[in-house]
Amino acid sequence: MEKLVIKGGTRLSGEVVIGGAKNAAVAILPATLLVDGICTISNLPYISDVKISCKILEELGAKVTWNSNNEVVIDSRNISSFKTPIDLTSKFRASYYLIGALLGRCRAAVVGLPGGCNLGARPVDQHIKGFEALGANVDILEGKINASAKKLVGTHIYLDKVSVGATINVMLASVLAEGTTIIENVAKEPHVVDLANFLNTMGADIRGAGTDTIKINGVEKLSGNTAYSVVPDQIEAGTFMLAAVATKGDILIKNCIPEHLDCLTAKIIEMGANVEIHDDSIRVWTDTTPNSANITTMPYPGFPTDLQPQIGVALSLSNGTSIINEGIWESRFQYTNELNKMGANIINQGKSAVFTGVDKLYGAPVEATDLRAGAALIIAGIVANGETSITNIYHIDRGYENIEDKFRKLGANIQRVIEEDIF
Ligand code: EPZ
To answer: Using CA positions, which residue lies closest to atom 19 of ligand 1?
Structure first.
């Protein structure tokens, strides 16, 4: 097993280039199954969720050619199956997008239940509600979701919860359906908009992505035969913005879309840091202890739950007491136990936590409990006095490309080492 070893006490400074958005890439790759043609997808993050997604596409009969670590050409003209390999779909969350894409292309899908970060129940009832509204039969049997439809007919769907996954999955199933589908109470995240832009580039007719209502006029086919570049990852960008705050550093975050981070930028300024916004970059710098602040995570454009652990590190070192209310996931505070091992003073109370700022964190052996928790622990290790080792870093590799290289270029003393098995 690998682990990250960090010698802390560093103030990060320099420039970092942000990669393509994981949560857009894992939606766009299955969406290529809807295209009866060839798609070139660039600015892909070279992360395990993307590699597994491409492996699954190949198992389904698509031809996948890697032009580089960050660009693939996908030829989905000869899809030969609608049954996905269960051992691969269980390795990440977004495998469930294969249901919507295969249903849309083949009118049938057999997909193993997804895996991904353990953040709570993570139900899929809204996905199923959307598929059934379009005319599909869906059942869950032996750990697989089976969906089939004689035909898919556009309809009016009102999602009971604002759900990124359900919004994306129903969009995928509607693109080639007969007639018009209107989906209300949808998620507005940048990756939802990016998927709609990709599908429209390939010949779909989707309007309203980024608002509360998306309208999809079904089309006969998506011809593809064009290229698309994935949107920059606002969560990776936010991770480095918060690293500058926690380490009292000075970082220029390049190749991002500042508007996607307006909520975080406002909060960072409230905490006393300086922010400079440019067309496609953001500079964050500070040399003072962060002010305390209160956070409630909510769907976009509210404060993103995927930056909650990272801001938790900065709040752990603030000059007062802060409260985080987690509005999306039942168990996104697992990382606080690890931060407390490093000297933080955090009290968990179910879906909220109270952070009493401390002067210092101290290096310790800690464990990544999920993807964003892992990123937060890297920031904590960099700012802490002493040495930190982080295990279970496979979580981090699911969502961040070359994370230790990027932090090392900013001045961190961080190494990836093989952890000897003791048994
Ligand atoms: C996506 O997960 C992201 N993952 C998550 O990012 C992110 O935390 C989440 O959206 C919220 O922004 C991907 O995009 C691959 P949801 P998703 O459906 O789609 C409830 C990361 O770190 N719900 O928006 O699974 C659900 O329980 C990951 O990159 C239902 O009740 O999240 C939750 O409380 C972690 N029924 C809320 O909605 C459903 O059918 C939002 O979930 C679906 C969801």
So the answer is: 165
Cα distance between the two ends of the chain: 12
Please answer whether residues 331 and 121 qualify as being in contact, where contact means their C-beta atoms are separated by less than 8 angstroms.
no
Residue 258 is classified by DSSP as G
Domain positions in the chain: 2-19+233-418, 22-215+222-229
For the CA of 329, the closest atom of ligand 1 is: 34
234: helix, coil or strand?
helix
**In this structure, which amino acid lies at residue 224?**
G
Which residues on adjacent β-strands are paired with residue 4? 390, 416
CA distance 149 to 139: 12
Q: Which two tokens stand for residue 253?
A: 């975050």
Closest atom of ligand 1 to 23 CA is 14
**CA distance linking residue 367 with residue 373, whole number of Å:** 9
Lowest mean pLDDT among 8-17, 70-79, 82-91, 188-197: 82-91
Calpha distance 101→152 (Å, rounded) = 12
pTM of the model: 0.97
Distance CA 70, CA 408 (A): 21
pLDDT tens sequence across 366-380: 999 999 999 999 999
What does residue 288 show for φ and ψ, rounded to 5 degrees?
Answer: -120, 160
Q: Quote the CATH superfamily of domain 2-19+233-418.
A: Enolpyruvate transferase domain (3.65.10.10)
CATH code of the domain occupying 22-215+222-229? 3.65.10.10
Pocket of ligand 1 (CB under 6 A): 22-23, 26, 93-94, 117, 121-127, 161, 163-166, 187, 305-306, 328-329, 371-372, 399
Q: Is 199 helix (H, G, I), strand (E, B) or coil?
A: helix
Q: How far is CA 222 from CA 43, 82, 115, in A?
A: 22, 18, 29
Secondary structure element (H or E) that encloses residue 38, with its range: strand 38-42
Containing H/E element for 295? Answer: strand 295-296
Q: Which of 62, 20, 65, 27 is nearest to 43 (CA)?
A: 20
Structure tokens that stand for 104 in this block: 């849309």
pLDDT digit string, tens, across residues 242-258:
999 999 999 999 999 99
Q: How far is the CA of 10 from the centre of ligand 1 (A)?
A: 34
Q: Whose CA is nearest to atom 10 of ligand 1?
A: 164
2-19+233-418 and 22-215+222-229 in the same fold: yes
